[in-house]
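Q: I'm building a small set of examples for a reading group on sequence design. Run inverse folding on the following structure and report the sequence directly after it, with nothing in between.
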């Protein structure tokens, strides 16, 4: 078996037609080269699958070369895309990704952050369950970027699912639905709270009676309880916090002989793998998880170059409604 020689910084420099020192600056301190040069070097490095030596770079900088990504539930299909995007962006810059699953627990999140502060160069929090004050306190001590959890003074990447929920409600209104159930996520979910408020406001504007059936764990298993709760409301359609709950609802409704969408329309959120394979295929809100992960990682890299950056306004990414067969006209 022939071992391939590891790609070196000299290989990247020769392919890009620049000096090795330029490659080094473009990958470790990109602010010191032009945007064109940075893009060229990053593209060539990716083509050659070049991986800078994290250990060598860390010497003298007291950096670990590792960034932590903390997710609320690694089993949630949405986080697969977030993890992929974060990994791709950080890997291209020569950083390792340290993945932590807090299992929807604020206490586990606090404990993880306390342990990670000394072991990583920065922390990316996806769907944090902590308070604004806690996030600001952490950001003051350690580079921090939040995904789908906005707090003043904290760098944030937000997917605007609230606006997409309005489009989903308009879609249901166009089909004749006038009583719609809202199936919320966990009590501490910032995105669920935003969607609940937006749905209520949009419902009043559209003449739709929005019934809030409470908070549910964002898993497929909780879909059965969510389906039972929705059926008690007399709603003809529902908006579920995520696809996992919605898919769990489909299974429960089938068991109970409730037809989807004839008896009850269902809209999910995330467009996870398999959402289009359901019976019926799920109408859902497509969330750009990979883009969110990439954006958060890119923001973190800026933080590492500038120890005291301005948090600025949240970076907002759009989401889109994908109409499939789990929604239809009122029977």
């Amino acid at each position: 078996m022939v071992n391939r020689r590891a790609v070196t910084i000299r290989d990247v420099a020769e392919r890009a037609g620049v000096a090795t020192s330029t490659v080094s600056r473009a990958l470790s301190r990109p602010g010191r080269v032009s945007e064109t040069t940075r893009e060229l070097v990053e593209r060539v490095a990716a083509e050659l699958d070049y991986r800078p030596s994290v250990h060598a770079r860390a010497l003298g900088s007291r950096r670990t070369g590792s960034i932590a990504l903390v997710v609320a539930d690694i089993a949630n299909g949405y986080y697969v895309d977030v993890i992929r995007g974060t990994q791709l962006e950080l890997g291209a810059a020569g950083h390792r990704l340290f993945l932590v699953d807090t299992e929807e627990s604020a206490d586990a999140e606090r404990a993880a952050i306390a342990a990670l502060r000394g072991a990583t160069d920065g922390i990316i929090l996806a769907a944090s369950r902590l308070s604004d004050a806690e996030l600001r306190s952490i950001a003051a001590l350690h580079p921090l970027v939040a995904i789908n959890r906005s707090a003043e003074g904290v760098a944030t990447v937000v997917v605007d699912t609230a606006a997409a929920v309005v489009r989903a409600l308009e879609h249901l209104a166009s089909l004749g639905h006038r009583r719609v159930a809202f199936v919320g996520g966990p009590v501490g979910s910032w995105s669920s709270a935003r969607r609940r408020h937006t749905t209520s406001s949009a419902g009043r504007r559209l003449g739709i009676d929005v019934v809030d059936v409470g908070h549910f764990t964002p898993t497929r298993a909780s879909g059965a309880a969510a389906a039972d709760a929705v059926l008690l409301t007399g709603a003809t359609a529902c908006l579920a916090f995520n696809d996992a709950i919605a898919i769990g609802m489909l299974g429960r409704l089938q068991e109970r002989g409730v037809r989807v969408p004839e008896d009850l329309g269902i809209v999910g959120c995330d467009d996870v793998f398999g959402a289009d394979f359901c019976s019926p295929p799920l109408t859902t809100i497509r969330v750009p998880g990979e883009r969110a992960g990439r954006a958060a990682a890119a923001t973190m890299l800026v933080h590492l170059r500038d120890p005291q950056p301005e948090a600025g306004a949240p970076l907002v990414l759009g989401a889109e409604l994908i109409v499939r067969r789990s929604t239809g006209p009122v029977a």
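The chain has three domains: 9-52, 66-158+289-315, 161-288.
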